Every structure is written in C-alpha cells, then in structure tokens.
Amino acid sequence: MERFLSPTTPRGTAARAETARLGALRDDQGKRLYPGVQPRQFDEPEVTYAGKVQTPEQKRVLQQAFGQETDRYLAKLLADPRYREATDAQKASMVADALSEVAVRADVRAGGRIARDAKAQANYAYLAIPQFEGISPTADADTIRRYNLDVRDAKQQLERWRKRYPDAPGRGEAEFAQTYPSMILLARKPARAAADLRVRRREIEQRTGVEPDADLAGIFVVRPDQGGRAP
Q1: Which segments of the chain does DSSP mark as H helices, in order?
Q2: Alpha carbons 123 and 214: distance in angstroms, whole number
Q3: pLDDT in tens, 110-125
Q4: How far apart are CA 50 and CA 225, in angstroms?
Q5: Contact indicator for 227, 62 with CB cutoff of 8 Å
Q6: Separation between Cα atoms, residue 16 and residue 199, nearest integer Å
Q7: Contact present, 229 and 41 (Cβ < 8 Å)
C-alpha cells in the first residue's frame, strides 16, 4: 500500500529520514524520546477513522491525503532556518505541531470520500460555514473550510508570538506582523457573530441529529478511534 511520504521525491525522502531519525532516539532505558513524530499510517487490516470503519478505497484516500499534506508541511518545516538551529527536543515539538496541522488539512482533503459518523459529519458540515469575516458564504465549501483553518492557524500563531513577551505582547505582535505580513491580516480577521453561528449549528443539528462543536479547535480533537497509527 502507498505510504505517506514518497521516497522517490527529494522532499519526501528528507522528511521521511528526519522523522525516522527523531523517532529512533531513545533514553537510557530504551524508551522512545519522541513518540509523537511519526506520520499517521492507514495500512492496518481494519482502520476506524472519524468513528467509522473505512473500506480499502477509503483507506487509500486517507493514505494519499495524509501523505500529500505530510510531505508539504514537513518540507516547509525542514526548510525553516529556525528548525535547523533547534535542538532535537525542539525539533520533535515542531514536527509534532506540524503533524497536528497535517491531520486537520488532510481531513479536509479527504472530504466526502471517506466514511464519517454523525458527529464527524456535523463537524465537517460546520467547518464549511464561514467562521470569520472576509470570505463570501457563497464560496465553495472546501474554499471556506481552508479559509477557516487558515485564519484559525494565523490567530494561534499570533498568540504564540505575543506570549514570547508576557510584559509586552505588542512587541511580539509587531515582530509577527513584520515576519509574516500576509498572515497578520488573517490573524486580525474578526469572528462572525456568535448568534449567527449558533443558528447555523442548530440547522446542522436538524439535518444530522447531532450538534457540531462550537469551537473550531474542538472539531479536530482526535478521538482514540479516529484512525491511523504511528509506527
């Protein structure tokens, strides 16, 4: 079965080698130091993802979606000078964060080609509702999903930069704006009115029988049954 990273591409090979290197590091007792750095795989005989057992074709879709996003995010990370200067512990944390984002983006890429239980369907539908100002509600569903995730990611990154200077968060924001001029625009997008979003969640509940999570972050909390494995 096709793996996450294609060893035939330079960036796939580099990313695979780096995650393997970090994953192989062990302490004096032989325990893995960084177990969270391995990309997810869907090659088990039976895979449950989003609350549903996936067919072989659906596993292939997940494998491909996660592979493409893993390749893209880790190639970007490995090219970052801050990554090259980091300690192994810091690198492992950065890789784990990147793989968390991979899971979010890969889920959108897999889209309606996989099976989802009622809760996962409700959350997937809610992600297609504009959560922030700046995008038309008539845009196609996947464009809206990606926009919601881009804004959420920008806001989270801005908050991390602000926390670099607890006594002067404005300094962190200024540095973030200078470093990522396009991302700061997304980070400053206001959220849509809570009352409007509440109405949309109720509409989804009426269709699916399940109310979606109100918080975008909650949509992608991976349940123990949400599929794949880290070798």
Answers
A1: 10-24, 56-78, 81-85, 88-110, 118-127, 141-162, 169-179, 181-187, 194-208, 216-219
A2: 9
A3: 999 999 999 999 999 9
A4: 7
A5: yes
A6: 44
A7: yes
> What residues have CB less than 8 Å from 131, skipping those under 6 apart?
148, 151, 152, 191, 192, 197, 216
List of residues 6+ apart from 151 with CB closer than 8 A: 131, 132, 134, 186, 187, 189
Question: Which tokens belong to 224?
Answer: 């123990």
CA angle at 225 for the pair 224 and 230, rounded to the nearest 5°: 70
> Residue 14: which pLDDT band, with cuts at 50, 70 and 90?
confident
Considering the entire predicted model, what is its pTM?
0.83
Q: Domain boundaries in the chain?
A: 1-116+221-231
Q: Please name the residue that has the structure tokens 């409700």.
A: 122
Q: Report pLDDT digits (tens) over 60-79.
A: 999 999 999 999 999 999 99
